[in-house]
Design goal:
With 390 residues, the chain is α/β, with parallel strands linked by helices. It has 16 helices and 8 strands. Helix 2 crosses helix 3, helix 2 runs antiparallel to helix 13 and helix 5 packs parallel to helix 14. It starts with 12 loop residues before the first helix and ends with a helix. 39% of the residues are buried.
């Protein structure tokens, strides 16, 4: 293979997209969509029945959750910019993928998130300020995963997919009814951990749902560079279903997730869901997306904003009026103020706690290191006292 086979520029998106679409069109998966961008509902024979329970109250609840987690996300970004957080991974644009899937879960299902599943955390009933302890540097976690069946955020890319499959295999052996859910991004899909986890899941027919949020950018690398086929097509290579769903359609995501959970729970094995969405903000607050993508691309996706889409339907169907949206805005501001106050009140643990967290039980080497550290700190105190006496 020579240089003539490489893209003409580092990421020639037009050329890459052409190479992807030059294959057999029959291989392209159909995108599941129940709520169009203009706010009109569509029928779907397979997945539509999994959304019929979403009445007016439920749809308003989905909108409220999406709005609240977006408002929380905005506040977290502001806190980082003001030096109150070390870093923050925004979820702007991915609210429907997270709220839609999270609200489909049952209490005994167990979630293995990445570091961006703030919306899923909301649906599991976590205090959102707990998510910020890690990013403020006052905790290595922030919550007890067992309380809400929501695991700690995983900063090691794709590691949680292996954990999720291991948990699912444990559910099988303990004859438990729950489903394990692994959230990951399109960037993580290039990691070997994802391949290995899918091999084990398929081999054991384990009750696990792989939920990939394809937000189009693995930091600065576009999806087209990582995969020459749609990500959902990869599932067929492992022998289980793969579904591509409009990730900005909260109704469709909810329905597809319910179908997948039912499939896994009934003993029919794993499912891969590719939520086709878009990260409208930076990868993290340390990132500048203007360096690698065009504003025209961002503008095009703004028209597919998941909140605007559901709002159009709620208004056109007379399911919600101005007073509802005004009330949600007030609730968002109240949440943001509460989170800000709780974050500013957070203080770091004593240094001894870091030593206590190394092992579950006392360990002689850790005790020796702690004794050395205390002696080291005491030396500074002696120096200060000597200085004051002089």
């Amino acid at each position: 293979m020579g240089a003539e086979h490489l893209p003409t520029s580092e990421f020639d998106i037009e050329e890459l997209e052409q190479s992807m679409t030059s294959s057999d069109p029959a291989d392209a998966p159909e995108m599941v969509q129940l709520l169009a961008s203009d706010g009109t509902l569509r029928e779907d024979v397979q997945y539509g029945p999994y959304a019929v329970h979403l009445d007016g109250e439920a749809l308003r609840g989905l909108y409220r959750d999406m709005f609240l987690v977006r408002r929380f996300d905005q506040e977290a970004v502001a806190l980082q910019r003001q030096g109150q957080l070390v870093m923050w991974p925004p979820l702007l644009g991915q609210e429907a993928a997270q709220i839609g899937s999270g609200t489909a879960l049952q209490a005994n299902d167990y979630v293995f998130p990445t570091y961006r599943e703030h919306g899923v955390a909301l649906t599991r009933g976590l205090e959102l300020s707990a998510l910020l302890k890690l990013f403020r540097g006052v905790s290595s976690g922030g919550w007890d995963p067992r309380e809400k069946n929501f695991h700690l955020y995983t900063l090691v890319l794709a590691a949680q997919t292996l954990h999720a499959v291991g948990y699912a295999m444990g559910l099988q052996r303990d004859s438990e009814d729950g489903v394990s859910v692994a959230y990951f991004g399109d960037g993580a899909s290039s990691e070997g951990d994802v391949h290995e986890s899918m091999v084990f899941a398929a081999s054991n027919q384990s009750p696990v749902v792989f939920f990939c949020q394809n937000n189009h950018w693995a930091i600065s690398v576009p999806t087209e560079v990582q995969s020459r086929i749609p990500l959902s097509n990869r599932a067929s290579g492992y022998g289980f279903p793969g579904i591509r769903v409009d990730g900005n359609d909260v109704v469709a995501v909810h329905a597809v997730m319910r179908w997948a959970l039912e499939h896994a729970r009934s003993g029919r094995g794993p499912v891969l869901i590719e939520a086709f969405t878009y990260r409208m903000s930076a990868h993290t607050t340390a990132d500048d997306p203007t360096k690698y993508r065009l504003s025209a691309e961002e503008d095009a996706w703004k028209e597919k904003d998941p909140l605007k889409r559901l709002e159009r339907y709620l208004r056109s169907s007379n399911t919600a009026d101005d007073s509802f949206f005004e009330q949600v805005e007030v609730q968002g501001d109240e949440l943001a103020a509460k989170v800000r106050a709780e974050v500013l009140a957070m203080t770091g643990p004593e240094m001894v706690q870091s030593f206590n967290n190394v092992y579950a039980d006392p360990h002689p080497l850790v005790a020796e290191e702690l004794a050395w550290h205390r002696e080291y700190e005491a030396g500074f105190a002696d120096a200060d006292e000597a200085g004051e006496s002089n």
